[in-house]
Design brief:
By secondary structure, the protein is α+β, with helices and mostly antiparallel strands. Helices cover 30% and strands 26% of the residues. Strands 1, 2, 3, 4, 10, 11, 12 and 13 form an eight-stranded mixed β-sheet that branches.
Length: 328
């Protein structure tokens, strides 16, 4: 990446996630998934275009979300160096936000041009993710029992002390049964598996492992964050039907291949930012006041391994003098 070593682009990206969170947070509990997503997308796109970079969206609001903007292949930024890949999830947990539930986030990541995996037509991925203490001991081809024993050993815990995050979906019926037989605890989530993956690497979150099938775009975004946090993720593209398998084969995608964190994002210079929209174990949600709001964000750079927490207070009387996004 042709940029000065001292330039931490994640510190610029946090403005992007703050903007998305501030715009989308107004929709908490209102049951309007489309309205909240549009607000987040509009805000994120506006601010991304002010960042000094020549970016191409590799992971965007693509086929699964049928989005008109922040689509795969869209060019964003000022056009100046560095040349980067962009991964966005304006709202990780749109349904969580619509229902006023915990752990919805605005997230964005960038990395060297050509380093992010484009999953193409495969919009789902089988995943297993852990934090730094269990890095190097997981195997997506192993049984849940074998993986949980390995994680427990690496973390110095009893297997019964482990907490596994799993998306609450019918497809996970067998996985959930296997985890229960193993004796581990389970936390079922309705959405938001980027937050779930990050929690495996976040001290005091109480989460040890993420398992199951979620979005493939979210898998790439999670890999970007876990690179900075020192964790690990493995994945395997998952087809919903034979038609999707055939389409993937025609385009040269191997849905049987095991994907390591370096397959998902090859660069060692990855920047990631996330801002809480609703309260959760990872981040506080947006708090609105009469004349402004408060946001809570994580900012990461994999090259340095630095993970920052940023609490920001935003004043409408100042911000609205130049912002193109209407927050108040």
């Amino acid at each position: 990446m042709s940029e000065k070593p001292s330039r931490n682009l994640a510190l610029e990206l946090v403005r992007v996630t703050e903007a998305a969170a501030l715009a989308a947070g107004r929709f908490m509990g209102r049951g309007d998934k489309e309205g909240s997503d549009q607000a987040a997308v509009d805000a994120m796109r506006l601010v991304l275009n002010t960042v000094e970079m020549n970016g191409i969206i590799i992971i965007g609001e693509g086929e699964k979300d049928e989005a008109p903007m922040l689509y795969n292949g869209e060019v964003l930024g000022t056009g100046a160096e560095p040349d980067v890949d962009i991964a966005v999830d304006p709202i990780d947990g749109t349904r969580l936000l619509a229902l006023g539930k915990a752990n919805s986030l605005a997230t964005v990541a960038i990395a060297d041009r050509g380093s992010m995996l484009d999953p193409g037509p495969m919009v789902y991925m089988e995943k297993i993710a852990v934090g730094p203490e269990a890095k190097g001991v997981i195997d997506i081809e192993a049984t849940p029992l074998v993986n949980l024993r390995s994680v427990a050993r690496a973390k110095g815990k009893e297997l019964a002390d482990l907490t596994v995050v799993v998306l609450d979906r019918p497809r996970h019926e067998k996985l959930i049964a296997d985890i229960r037989r193993a004796g581990a605890r389970i936390r079922l989530i309705t959405d938001g598996d980027v937050a779930g993956a990050l929690m495996t690497a976040w001290p005091d979150s109480g989460v040890d492992v993420l398992m199951g099938i979620g979005g493939s775009p979210e898998g790439v975004i999670s890999a970007c964050a876990l690179k900075a946090m020192g964790g690990e993720i493995q994945g395997r593209l998952w087809a919903r039907n034979d038609t999707e398998i055939q389409k993937a084969r025609e385009l040269g995608f191997d849905h049987t291949r095991i994907l390591t964190i370096n397959d998902l994002v090859r660069s060692d210079n990855v920047f990631f930012a996330a801002t809480g929209i609703t309260d959760g174990e990872l981040l506080d949600g947006v708090k609105y006041y009469g004349n402004g709001a408060r946001t809570h964000s994580l900012v990461m750079r994999s090259k340095s391994g630095t993970v920052r927490e940023i609490v920001a207070r935003h004043r409408w009387d100042k911000l609205m003098q130049f912002s193109q996004v209407k927050y108040d």
